[in-house]
Amino acid sequence: MTYRALELLNLPPDELSFLLDIGCGSGLSGEILDEEGYIWAGVDIAPSMLEVALEREVEGDLFLQDIGQGFGFRPGSFDGAISISVLQWLLNAETSHPTSSPPHRLSRFFTTLHSALRNPSRAVFQFYPSSDDQIQLITSAAQKAGFGGGVVVDYPNSNKARKVFLVLFVGGGGGGAGHQQVPEGLQGEEREDGKVMFERRREREAKREKGGKRKGVKDKDWILKKKELYRQRGKEGVPRDSKFTGRKRRAVF
Amino acid sequence: MVRLITHNLLACHVKNCTSNNFPLAFKDLGDTSLPAEQPDMIDDEFLQKLHHVLLEIHVEEGSMVCPNCNHVYPISNGIPNMLLAEHEIG
Ligand SMILES: [Zn+2]
Questions:
Q1: Are A8 and A183 in contact (CB under 8 A)?
Q2: What homologous superfamily does CATH list for A2-217?
Q3: A197 pLDDT tier (thresholds 50, 70, 90)
Q4: Which residues, in sequence order, are CB contacts of B65 under 8 Å at separation 6+?
Q5: Does A61 contact B77 at a Cβ distance shorter than 8 Å?
């Protein structure tokens, strides 16, 4: 997904680009950014994930940040931004305080991101909207903040491979022609077993992200992230992290 | 991992803190390898020092303070904590 996001960013090929990874987590995308020769900074709300990123020795500079509070980056700092599987979290109200409402958080987020990006440039978000209303809420907040662009759906007809990207433009969005053209989604052919024919690039991505073997959805990173989020929101009784966190449990009879 | 070159990106984002809100001041940085004034001649020695200060100094533990509203952004493990309290959110 990181590779696809980079493709959608459509950065000039021979220039050094400085990117922002929004919700960088444990540095999975960051490793790819390092490999691909980008300079980057990452923000995440979960200290435990950032610590994993440090252990991974990613090159990017890391910040502990709640993106719904807005960014503290100076104007025009970044040549582009990517975000993998994060945006949907902004739709949850954290407390009853007015600054915690999803519209307020979305507005803070998009407004401060828009100003942190160079003109022209792009921001690409892969995310998991649970309804068309959510997509609507997000895109209208982005528009109000001054972004152009739109939603790109890859493999729209596949349950498994369908991926939703929000591709936002600052100014013309770069990419030469100077006009805002939202990229086309990828169209895949579904095989009989229901698995989409991925391009080679995507398989490579899967391998790199998963170290060759498929990880379960609820792996340790995922659990740590989730627990951290609950703690951030002041939820009580979140189990502490231990070496047993996310370990496979055998069925006991 | 707060290199000075990254620190240079940051501005305070506390509510209504919109002017004189950067650069955030490091507390207790203690590096004095660069002269206070820009030297008349930019020589290799100066460039090396500049490289050192911009790219090689990593602030691991400490804090940054907004020159305008005095909000303190702690740095722990080299990671600046940019979180705001509810009343500070714009
Ligand atoms: Zn301030």
A1: yes
A2: Vaccinia Virus protein VP39 (3.40.50.150)
A3: very low
A4: B24, B25, B27, B71, B72, B73
A5: no
Query: pLDDT tens across A17-50, in order?
Result: 999 999 999 999 999 999 999 999 999 999 999 9
Q: State whether residue B65 is helix, strand or coil.
A: strand
CA B5-A4-A54 angle, to 5 degrees, is 40
CA of A67 to the centre of ligand 1 (A): 17
**A64 and B90: CB-CB below 8 Å?**
no
pTM of the model: 0.76
Q: Which residues contact A10 (CB under 8 A, 6 or more apart)?
A: A122, A173, A174, A175, A183
pLDDT of res. B7:
83
Third-level CATH fold of B2-29+38-83? N-terminal domain of TfIIb (2.20.25)
Q: Is A65 on the interface with B (CB under 8 A)?
A: yes
Instruction: Tell me which residues of chain A, numbers 185 to 214, contact chain B at a CB-CB cutoff of 8 Å.
Output: none
- B68 to chain A, closest Cα gap in Å: 14
Burial of A241 (0-12, 13-18, 19+ CB in 10 A): middle
pLDDT number for residue A215:
44
Contacts of B84 in chain A (CB under 8 A): 66, 69
Domain spans, chain B: 2-29+38-83
The 10 Å Cβ neighbour count of residue B63 is 17
Q: How far is the centre of ligand 1, averaged over its atoms, from the C-alpha of B65 (Å)?
A: 8
Number of cross-chain residue pairs from A and B with Cβ atoms under 8 Å apart: 63
User: Residue A236's pLDDT is what?
Assistant: 62
Render pLDDT for B42-64 as a digit per residue (tens, 0 to 9).
788 888 877 776 666 667 788 99
Checking if the pLDDT of B39 tops 80, the result is no
